[in-house]
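User: structure tokens for this one?
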Amino acid sequence: MKMSNSQSETELFEAYCQGQQEALGVLYLRLEKVLLLHSYRICEDREMAHDCVAELFEYLLQQSSQERNKFIASNSLVNVQGWFYTLIKNRTLDAMRHKAMRKRSYFEFGRWLLGGNGHNEISTGDYDKEKLLALLSAREKEAFELYADGHQYQQIADRLDISSDTVKTLIRRGKEKLRRLKNLI
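Assistant:
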């Protein structure tokens, strides 16, 4: 069945749930800008908003027909746009939490390396990010900083023009190097 822009969002969503992927494409074209604005209003980060919208539609494309039918059965969708708003809001909040957790994990690791155990409160004077990062090679430092900013391995790989396996290796070696240096101090 040919999808048209004149179909309602509910009809398009039902067609998607019945296995017609092109219906999701029409919904994407119709809702993308509104969802981008909604996501951006929450996170105030243009790149994160774009990523969240793209990830949402990638997720929906990968759903099996059984999972799609659960959407209709569990939600009895009356307002498809409202349902998408809820999905993008949740995805954006998850992305923000994930980014915050990665930063906190990175800084706790730095505190541990410089003498704290991550459980005791350490004054900010005890922790010098530049001192910690100066112990790494330029590539390790760059990979660490991007990782701490919440970037995925593949995003770091694209930015540094290396493979994601190399990114993982750089981060792992950097951690090992910092642990060894901490033991020598």
